[in-house]
Amino acid sequence: MTDTVIRALDESDAHLFDAHPDPLNARAAHERTTHRPHWKRVALRDGNVVARGAWWGGPDDEQPVNLNWFDVAEGEVEAGAELLRSAPWQVELELNLPGDWREHPDLAAAAETRFAAARAAGYELLVERFLYRWTPERGLPERPGRLLFTPEADDAVFFDALRRIHAATLDAHALKAIEEGGLDRAAQEELDFFHWCPSPREWWQLAHTPEGELAGIHIPAHNPSGPTIGFIGVLPEHRGRGYAYDLLAECTHFLVEHGAEAVTGATDRGNFPMAANFTRAGFPVVRERINFHPAAEAVS
């Protein structure tokens, strides 16, 4: 077997990225994603593309924030691993898969090849997530009317609420942040992300009970691909009353009232209560996302 050649692309040879099969239909997952040619890399053997990766960031980011398109040909696990190891950016890897990939042996095999390459490159599984997409034919979820929603201009109020919410969370990314830097880090990472989003800061809302107690928060947002359920969080002392659904319904209505023709969302596969709320609100699973992170992050 000849040696693998790793090649960074630019506008002149970006076509090489497309010279690879797409069994997991990654292109459909990235219909609304813009990838920069010079953040794409391929692994070549005998002139043929055997692995490819596209790193991604927002329009103002100077460095990629993740790798969200990664393909590896069957039998080329090491080439895929070398593509990851040799990259100048060691960031989180997102594998966006068809929602039914586990049910089809050919799709499962293709996914497992990518998992094997990631592990061989020193990446560790972080979480598996459901990706949802609401469209108008699903009908808007009913607003229960139990909570009062208001904007809040002070980031410190949201920071405190996020700390309290993450003190008892099922979210894998938040748990990772807590392990590495405590509740303050987890809360700050959330705030930083929503400030990074191009949607207005004025959209963030608090949810109070009729008695005036803060029950939770919801953040309608736009990421670079469009309208999304940014964050849904219920304070621990108000859990067990189904308020997460109230927040999700309100967030969906809010985005539609501000022009959204479709709304995306996501939750960890292990977060059964939130997954049930998405289903109840009319959000079908459209894809699954498997998140890996460089193992070096775990000890940094």
UniProtKB/TrEMBL annotation:
- The organism's superkingdom is given as Bacteria
Domain (N-acetyltransferase) spans 163-300
Q: What is the protein's name according to its record?
A: Ribosomal protein S18 acetylase RimI-like enzyme
